[in-house]
Amino acid sequence: MTTVTRRRVLRALGGGGLGLLAAGGLGTAQAYRFGVTRHTRTLPGLEAPLRVAFLTDLHYGLYIGAGSVRAWVEATNRERPDVVLLGGDQLDSRMDEPPEALLAELARLRAPLGVYGVWGNHDYGSFGFYGGRQYGPARGDWQGTRAQLEAAFANAGVTMLRNAGRPLRDDLYVGGVDDLWHGQPDVRAALAEAGKRATLLVMHNPDLLPELPGRVGLTLCGHTHGGQVRLPFAGAVMVPSRYGQRFAMGWVEGAQGTPAYVSRGLGLSGIPFRNLCEPEVAVMELRPSGEVTPGQ
């Protein structure tokens, strides 16, 4: 397991590199600008087109407030997605009570097939599974906090999938996997009811990709932030993955040739900087396999 901390990133950047980022607020400015990336693919088993919006790594709490989430939600709604998927690390601070400001913004998401999400490693810190500077000490009742938050997200219209799935249409199924580092991920359970439908799989950490038990239609991941701080020619300073740069961001491939997309995410982890790594709302235009898809 690779753990990214503020100290390790700053040490990797070095005093000069950090100075360049901080000069004029450059790194901070990049941290709070975001874009919408659009991707067109075919999805085996799909019988009608599908538009998916993928938002991941919101990290609400430490460096991210409701205003940022509001902007992301508004940008997502303008894309008119059929379904919205959240890729984990929605939370990044101690949660003694449900985060009402965050939930009020997420409740504004509009998608006829619903909004679904999974938990990530920072969510488990927010539950109290482990301690930290923004989480306080670990606590024995973390599972009760997780259950309370799952109910609160459901009340806001977000169904959290923990090794579970849902049929969204006769031709479409979505599955969600628990966090790799702190949960108990079970891909087979997440896809158990998929049958012959086209499948979307959401899992926070892309390090599960080589361990998929079989080919999946499309897998969506977050966690890496694209490295969050990237340098010209060198790429990401650090990626929280045992596979290094392999799953840092973008289109990658999992077991059995499964296509997967690793989003750069939206929030911030460890330090309030980004460099050459714009936050993104990823929009997937998915087509039936028989259609000609540009770029494939």
Structural commentary:
The model is unreliable at 1-24 (pLDDT under 50). This protein has a single domain, classed as Purple Acid Phosphatase, chain A, domain 2, CATH 3.60.21. The protein contains seven helices and 14 strands. It has helices at 6-22, 26-32, 66-78, 100-106, 121-127, 142-155, 187-190, and strands spanning 35-42, 50-55, 83-86, 115-117, 158-160, 164-169, 172-177, 198-203, 218-221, 230-231, 235-236, 250-253, 259-262, 280-287. The chain is an alpha/beta fold and 296 residues long. A six-stranded mixed β-sheet has the order 1-14-2-3-4-5. A six-stranded mixed β-sheet has the order 6-7-8-9-13-12.
**In sequence order, what are the helices and strands, one letter per element?**
HHEEHEHEHHEEEHEEEEEEE
**Major β-sheet, in short?**
6 strands, mixed
Mean pLDDT across all residues, rounded? 91
Order of strands across the biggest sheet? 1-14-2-3-4-5
CATH topology: Purple Acid Phosphatase, chain A, domain 2
State the secondary-structure class.
Answer: alpha/beta
How many helices in DSSP terms?
7
Query: Unreliable stretches, pLDDT < 50, 5 or more residues?
Result: 1-24
CATH architecture: 4-Layer Sandwich
List keywords for this structure.
alpha/beta; six-stranded mixed beta sheet; 296 residues; disordered N terminus; globular; Purple Acid Phosphatase, chain A, domain 2
